């Protein structure tokens, strides 16, 4: 772990202060952003992907439908289909004006 810290993390952190005052491109600045990309962005994307694959659509119970006057108003019909469903309508998750389809 100490070699990882000395080789990758510490040089990147020491360059942060110097690179904040730089205007324009620099080889040391590009190395900082390369390290940030591989050490911060890549693990963050991997964690988001794991979270997305772990959550199943059928695991969480659907909220009961309550017909409120201020929600799901259709002042103008949608120009596709029957005019009730939005362009990215999901029958399992999105309710129509009268309730869920499925």
From TrEMBL:
Pfam hit, one: COX6A
Broad EC category: oxidoreductase
Matching InterPro entries: Cyt_c_oxidase_su6a, Cyt_c_oxidase_su6a_sf
Subcellular location: Mitochondrion inner membrane
Enzyme Commission no: 1.9.3.1
Keywords per UniProt: Membrane, Mitochondrion, Mitochondrion inner membrane, Oxidoreductase, Transit peptide, Transmembrane, Transmembrane helix
Involved pathway(s): Energy metabolism; oxidative phosphorylation
GO BP: mitochondrial electron transport, cytochrome c to oxygen
UniProt superkingdom: Eukaryota
Recorded GO MF terms: enzyme regulator activity; oxidoreductase activity
Keyword ATP-binding: no
Topology of the protein relative to the lipid bilayer: Single-pass membrane protein
Gene Ontology CC annotation, any one: mitochondrial inner membrane
Family named by the database record: Belongs to the cytochrome c oxidase subunit 6A family.
Protein name: Uncharacterized protein
Organism for this UniProt entry: Drosophila virilis (Fruit fly)
Gene: Dvir\GJ22272
């Amino acid at each position: 772990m100490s070699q990882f810290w000395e080789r990758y993390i510490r040089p990147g952190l020491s360059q942060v202060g110097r690179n904040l005052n730089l205007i324009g491109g620099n080889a040391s600045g590009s190395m900082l952003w390369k390290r940030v990309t591989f050490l911060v962005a890549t693990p963050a994307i991997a964690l988001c992907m794991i979270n997305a694959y772990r959550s199943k659509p059928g695991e969480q119970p659907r909220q009961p439908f309550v017909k409120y006057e201020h929600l799901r108003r259709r002042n103008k019909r949608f120009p596709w289909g029957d005019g009730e469903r939005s362009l990215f309508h999901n029958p399992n998750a999105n309710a129509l004006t009268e309730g869920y389809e499925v």
